[in-house]
Design a protein that fits this description.
DUF554 domain-containing protein; mainly alpha; membrane; 233 residues; DUF554; transmembrane helix; 11 helices
């Protein structure tokens, strides 16, 4: 089953979120410390990813052009509006973190090369091991996030499943048209560019910044275009 890996990843997020919500009664001091610990961990992960680049100029250009496109499309605003719409539909009252949980978790789980590599493996070779591993990691992160951000984290399972599922379904076509060495280069620079975005999420979790990370996401597409252009020209 081509979509098995993506399905398991989505279920991992759901299970982690449910367990985390069961722990919502933990003291506020503990929640605050957990969130700051998550922020620091995400920052370290982002830095490690960012150093994967072999050409920092590609990362810089991708982030810059991606930011221009993202701000023009106002992705962050629309993503948050979707979260607020969900809040209204479920009748969330008072101070609700549904939108923040949905947006933050979606960005953490989708940005990065692991999902792409895993989805390609699922679609081309029927090997779901990478996505199985990612599901465990995402489940644990979802558990921690949901203790402070609530059930909005659970909703991230939907875009994760769609993102990985679409890649898995079209993996054979991608493999036919994209040379293996080019794909390796794209994944390398995509990992580094995604690392910058993950770093920004970590800073936001610590409350140090309010970076509109979703508006940087088009940089992932820009990476592929730049690397492809350099490869062929």
């Amino acid at each position: 089953m081509v979509l098995l890996g993506a399905l398991v990843n989505g279920l991992g997020i759901l299970v982690g979120s449910v367990i985390g919500m069961k722990l919502h009664n933990i003291p506020e001091r503990m929640k605050d410390t957990v969130m700051k610990g998550m922020g620091l961990s995400v920052i370290v992960l982002g830095i490690q990813m960012a150093f994967k680049t072999s050409n920092s100029l590609i990362v810089i250009l991708s982030i810059c052009f991606g930011a221009v496109i993202g701000e023009w499309l106002n992705i962050d605003y629309h993503l948050n509006q979707l979260g607020h719409w969900i809040e209204r539909k479920v009748g969330a009252k008072g101070k609700s973190n549904v939108s923040k949980g949905f947006v933050t978790a979606t960005l953490i789980f989708v940005i990065g090369a692991m999902g792409i590599i895993g989805a390609l493996d699922s679609g081309i070779r029927g090997n779901h091991d990478v996505l199985y591993t990612k599901s465990v990691m995402d489940g644990f992160i979802a558990l921690l996030l949901s203790t402070t951000l609530g059930w909005g984290v659970m909703l991230a399972a939907i875009p994760v499943f769609l993102f990985e599922g679409i890649i898995a379904l079209f993996a054979t076509q991608i493999n036919q048209f994209v040379p293996a060495d080019l794909m390796a280069l794209i994944i390398e620079e995509l990992t580094a560019t995604g690392g910058i975005m993950i770093l920004a999420i970590g800073l936001n979790l610590l409350g140090l910044t309010k970076i509109r990370v979703a508006n940087l996401v088009p940089g992932i597409v820009v990476v592929a275009l730049i690397v492809t252009g350099i490869y062929y020209f």
